[in-house]
């Protein structure tokens, strides 16, 4: 590594001992401040010394050395140079003279300036072949080419400028020029300085200029500005379909070869047959424009023989397109075309070309072509504005910003901004925020758009510098309380989301999102600037009210400020794009955003004073008015009251306030009190009211004796009644024992008897046995064999349906048969795509059958294991991707959410109890019927029933409690099974170890290579 030199050296290098080198040294040196001890020189090196420039009588060489004239004359020339030695120019030894200079002679070492362009003779054998841009580089700078030039460039796009850069200086070719199979060439103008073709050598002994088979060649040179002389030989042109013969004849005249060529040398039958040469100019008769179509009509074209006219071709672009137009049946009608699929408000270049027969035997067919016309399509409704954002900068204003539409479809003129106050969510009123588990959900308005929050923490005073690093200050009680409240807010918010999703809410009136789309602006209230008029509505009606829309027009900018809004209120803001045709076409559909204004200071303060009234003993009624325009909803009130300076707190829910118009304080001791009230809204707390004083009257003197009497009399009465009942019971028992002797038999419940409530009663799910056909065995279920079969008429609009048929063993008792049917009956309540459907029951006759939806791919556990790469029964499928895993998990979660919404706890969710359909959809399987198939997954705890301990939550293992939460735990284990392709959870542990591990708080480890998203 390079050493870091001392700062005193500046930009100079240094020795290994950190001593500064000479300024002419580069990198390092072996001795300080010595220009002969440098490892490398900064400028030039000469005879062991580094120096800033070469000394007299020496010359710069290769940018770093100084050499003598004698040394320069002996340097061998480069392979590309036509001279044998280097030259000296501007005190530098170089291989060639620079541009604009030429050697004084072939053996000279000095250069002189050229008069005009410097001639450069290139001689590379007899024929120089140019078949690419790379080969053309060899002719860069050449003015005279000794020999022949053969151009054969078959491929390439936009290469004319490159060819001109390398061949544009050629003035003379001493031999012939041959251009063949050069399909990449459109013109020969890249040979812009070619003036003479001497023809010292000719193609086939006849031709000095030979052009053969160039499919795209359309022009030779611009003969108005280019002169070319062919001194010897003839020209030959053949198979150039886009080169007009008139262009060739013009070259004959300019080059001086007219009369040399025979008729076969320039054949009009195979030159220009695909070009529109000597065209008649077609004129457009009419055009009609729509937003995405153009209707064109042009004049009739009459060639000498109408049979020569085949059709017309219309070319049009943004990028050139082409469409063929057949001749009109009536020869008197003007031809036309309707161009469709165009973009609105886009200018198109269009021309029409007549397609004619290329050549008759005795004459060349003239074509017809129009001038290029430029037509713009009509305007259309613009697309919606993009990237609408909004934020609040005060309690009465919202700032709105957006970007222009991607497709204005016209000249964008203005925007329509519409806003509507959104009703408060009165669903929040249902909560009693005075209970311990309910805390008001604080909602905050967005900040302003143009400012960004500071991300760096603010340092306390005295931090850093000489005082050293600061420690974090201990949290105050207020900060701890704030953190506690924040945690409560999050819990309540999650509960609110859960309740909002799973509790049915009344349907709201649908609002028309695109009300303004394709409508005229004639009836709009463009001058509305505020929302000054509001309607007082009750809490129950709040979420049903439809507030009016207000709107304003915004010209020439993509932002606006909406004023005169309510504090801490949610607004919907719609933005519409309007172009110059808005009066006839209407504006775009809206892009909308929701934004909330900031809270207003003092809006939550209770107006006026608090009144009080004593209606009952030891009870005071406090009454006050609600804030007129609070920050959102008022959720609760808080009262502080007390006597002698000691205050108590009383929370008053919204519901209680609506009943009483205030609050009731009970169990007050006699004396003087003071009280004050504070309102709490969605935005926070208002200010406390001024204290109000009230007096509680003392109780009457004989009140205590009266109270004792009221309490004692009922107790004495109850004791007397109880004694009488005990005596009656003892008397009856003694009498019955005297009446019945020893050895009397008492009736007991028959263990083989089951009540009528347990008997299965056929219902609308009953299917006639003759409609069921069993086909093949699928496997053993918990009650008996499971078959695949055909059922007729069990699914609407399906004559026959493939189904799974579950049976009960022939040896099963009557109770087991009824349990089998009742267990299947649980599924009659379910109708969800991600829960296996019950299709019918056959309870009449034997055997008892349960008809289920057929899940052809079996249970999820077996399916996942079959996807393991090393398994023998792999169906040839790869392991599931992350997308497929998430889809499986989502389908299971959807089915479980449906069961939870129907108050059903599964209690045994696992991959073995999920089924896979033919289309790979995963569904929750039938309940309780698959337990015996994977009997090793269950464990008998303490002589009780079998339990799936590896899928059970801690509370289920401890207390036997099964809830939706325990199903969620099981769902997490199912996710683990999906990620591991159905490995056994808690591998290596016995069931007893799993039981203790989970009850002590143990968790499954994250599987290897498990995506974080899963």
From TrEMBL:
Query: What Gene3D superfamilies does the annotation carry?
Result: Hormone Receptor, Insulin-like Growth Factor Receptor 1, Chain A, domain 2, Immunoglobulins, Phosphorylase Kinase, domain 1, Receptor L-domain, Transferase(Phosphotransferase) domain 1
Spell out the family assignment given in the record's similarity comment. Belongs to the protein kinase superfamily. Tyr protein kinase family. Insulin receptor subfamily.
Quick check: keyword Lyase in the entry?
A: no
What Pfam families does the annotation carry?
Answer: fn3, Furin-like, PK_Tyr_Ser-Thr, Recep_L_domain
Write out the GO biological process terms.
Answer: cellular response to glucose stimulus; insulin-like growth factor receptor signaling pathway; positive regulation of MAPK cascade; positive regulation of phosphatidylinositol 3-kinase/protein kinase B signal transduction; regulation of JNK cascade
> A GO molecular-function term, please?
ATP binding
Q: Could you name the Gene Ontology cellular component terms for this entry?
A: axon; insulin receptor complex
Kindly list the residue ranges recorded as spanning the membrane.
706-731
This entry's Enzyme Commission designation comes to 2.7.10.1
InterPro entries registered for this protein in UniProt? FN3_dom, FN3_sf, Furin-like_Cys-rich_dom, Furin_repeat, Growth_fac_rcpt_cys_sf, Ig-like_fold, Kinase-like_dom_sf, Prot_kinase_dom
Q: Which residues form the Protein kinase domain?
A: 772-1014
Any idea where this protein resides? Answer: Cell membrane
Q: Which PANTHER family match?
A: INSULIN-LIKE GROWTH FACTOR 1 RECEPTOR (PTHR24416:SF106), TYROSINE-PROTEIN KINASE RECEPTOR (PTHR24416)
- EC category name: transferase
Q: Where is the Fibronectin type-III domain?
A: 278-380, 381-479, 606-699
Keywords assigned by UniProt? ATP-binding, Cell membrane, Cleavage on pair of basic residues, Disulfide bond, Glycoprotein, Kinase, Membrane, Nucleotide-binding, Phosphoprotein, Receptor, Repeat, Signal, Transferase, Transmembrane, Transmembrane helix, Tyrosine-protein kinase
Coarsely, its chief localization is membrane
Name the record gives this protein: Tyrosine-protein kinase receptor
Annotated membrane topology is:
Single-pass type I membrane protein
């Amino acid at each position: 590594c390079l050493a870091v030199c001392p700062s005193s050296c500046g930009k100079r290098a240094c020795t290994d001992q950190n001593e500064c080198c000479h300024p002419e040294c580069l990198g390092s040196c072996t001795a300080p401040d010595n220009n002969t001890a440098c490892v490398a020189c900064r400028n030039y090196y000469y005879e062991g010394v580094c120096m800033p420039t070469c000394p007299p009588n020496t010359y710069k060489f290769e940018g770093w050395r100084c050499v003598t004239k004698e040394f320069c004359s002996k340097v061998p020339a480069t392979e590309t140079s036509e001279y044998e030695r280097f030259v000296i120019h501007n005190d530098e030894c170089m291989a060639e003279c620079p541009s604009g200079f030429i050697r004084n002679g072939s053996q000279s070492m000095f250069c002189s300036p050229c008069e005009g362009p410097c001639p450069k003779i290139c001689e590379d054998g007899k024929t120089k072949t140019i078949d690419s841009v790379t080969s053309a580089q060899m002719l860069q700078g050449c003015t005279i080419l000794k020999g022949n030039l053969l151009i054969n460039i078959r491929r390439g796009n936009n290469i004319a400028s490159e060819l001109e850069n390398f061949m544009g200086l050629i003035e003379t070719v001493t031999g012939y020029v041959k251009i063949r199979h050069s399909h990449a060439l459109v013109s020969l103008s890249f040979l812009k300085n070619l003036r003479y073709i001497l023809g010292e050598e000719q193609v086939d002994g006849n031709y000095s200029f030979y052009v053969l088979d160039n499919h795209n060649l359309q022009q030779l040179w611009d003969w108005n500005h280019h002169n070319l002389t062919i001194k010897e030989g003839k020209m030959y042109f053949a198979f150039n379909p886009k080169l007009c013969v008139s262009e060739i004849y013009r070259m004959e005249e300019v080059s001086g070869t007219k009369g040399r060529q025979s008729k076969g040398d320039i054949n009009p039958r195979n030159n220009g047959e695909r070009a529109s040469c000597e065209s008649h100019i077609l004129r457009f008769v009419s055009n009609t424009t729509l937003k995405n179509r153009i209707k064109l009509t042009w004049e009739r074209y009459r060639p000498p023989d109408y049979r020569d006219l085949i059709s017309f071709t219309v070319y049009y672009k943004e990028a050139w397109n082409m469409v063929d137009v057949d001749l009109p049946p009536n020869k008197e009608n003007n031809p036309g075309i309707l161009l469709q699929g165009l973009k609105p408000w886009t200018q198109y270049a269009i021309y029409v070309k007549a397609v004619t027969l290329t050549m008759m035997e005795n004459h060349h067919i003239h074509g017809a072509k129009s001038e290029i016309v430029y037509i713009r399509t009509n305007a259309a409704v613009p697309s919606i504005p993009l990237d609408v954002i909004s934020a609040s900068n005060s309690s009465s204003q919202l700032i709105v910003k957006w970007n222009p539409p991607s497709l204005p479809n016209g000249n964008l003129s203005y925007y329509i901004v519409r806003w509507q106050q959104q009703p408060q969510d009165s669903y929040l009123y249902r909560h009693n925020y005075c209970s311990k588990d309910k805390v008001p959900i604080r909602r905050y308005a967005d900040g302003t758009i143009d400012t960004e929050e500071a991300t760096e923490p603010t340092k306390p005073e005295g931090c850093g510098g000489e005082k050293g690093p600061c420690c974090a200050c201990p949290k105050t009680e207020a900060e701890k309380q704030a953190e506690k409240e924040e945690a409560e807010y999050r819990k309540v918010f999650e509960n609110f989301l859960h309740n909002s999703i799973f509790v049915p809410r009344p349907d709201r009136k649908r609002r028309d999102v695109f009300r303004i789309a394709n409508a005229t602006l004639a009836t709009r209230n463009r001058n509305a600037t505020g929302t000054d008029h509001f309607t007082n509505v009750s809490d129950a009606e709040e979420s049903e009210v439809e507030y009016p829309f207000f709107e304003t027009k915004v010209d020439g900018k993509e932002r606006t400020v909406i004023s005169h809004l309510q504090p801490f209120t949610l607004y919907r803001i719609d933005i519409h794009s309007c172009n110059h045709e808005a009066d006839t076409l209407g504006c775009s559909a809206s892009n909308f955003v929701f934004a909330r204004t900031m809270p207003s200071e003092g809006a939550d303060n209770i107006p006026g004073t608090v009144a009080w009234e004593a209606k009952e003993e030891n009870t005071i009624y406090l009454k006050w008015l609600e804030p007129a325009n609070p920050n959102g909803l008022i959720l609760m009130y808080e009262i502080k009251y007390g006597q002698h300076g000691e205050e108590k707190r009383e929370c008053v829910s919204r519901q209680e306030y609506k009943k009483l118009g205030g609050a009731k304080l009970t169990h007050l001791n006699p004396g003087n009190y003071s009280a004050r009230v504070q309102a709490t809204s969605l935005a926070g707390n208002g200010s406390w009211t001024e204290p109000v004083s009230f007096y509680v009257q003392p109780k009457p003197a004989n009140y205590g004796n009266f109270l004792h009497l009221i309490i004692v009399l009922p107790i004495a009465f109850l004791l007397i009644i109880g004694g009488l009942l005990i005596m009656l019971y003892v008397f009856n028992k003694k009498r019955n024992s005297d009446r019945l002797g020893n050895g009397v038999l008492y009736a007991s419940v028959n263990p083989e008897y089951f009540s009528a409530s347990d008997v299965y009663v056929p219902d609308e799910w009953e299917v006639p046995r003759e409609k069921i056909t069993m086909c093949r065995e699928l496997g053993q279920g918990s009650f008996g064999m499971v078959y695949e079969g055909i059922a007729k008429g069990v699914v609407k609009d399906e004559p026959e349906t493939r189904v799974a048929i579950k049976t009960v063993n022939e040896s099963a008792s009557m109770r087991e048969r009824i349990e089998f049917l009742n267990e299947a009956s649980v599924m009659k309540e379910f109708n969800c795509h991600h829960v296996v459907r019950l299709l019918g029951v056959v309870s009449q006759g034997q055997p008892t059958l349960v008809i289920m939806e057929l899940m052809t791919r079996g249970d999820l556990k077996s399916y996942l294991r079959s996807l393991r790469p090393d398994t023998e029964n792999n169906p040839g499928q790869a392991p599931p991707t992350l997308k497929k895993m998430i889809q499986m998990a989502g389908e299971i979660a959807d089915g479980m959410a449906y069961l939870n919404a129907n108050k059903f706890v599964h209690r045994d969710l696992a991959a073995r109890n999920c089924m896979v359909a033919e289309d790979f959809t995963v569904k929750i399987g039938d309940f309780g019927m698959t337990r015996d198939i994977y009997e090793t997954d269950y464990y008998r705890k303490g002589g009780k029933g079998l339990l799936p301990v590896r899928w059970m939550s801690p509370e289920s293992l401890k207390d036997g409690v099964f809830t939706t939460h325990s199903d969620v735990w099981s769902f997490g284990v199912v996710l683990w099974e999906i990620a591991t392709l159905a490995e056994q959870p808690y591998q290596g542990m016995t069931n007893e170890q799993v039981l203790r591990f989970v009850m002590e708080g143990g968790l499954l480890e994250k599987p290897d290579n498990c995506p974080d998203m899963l």
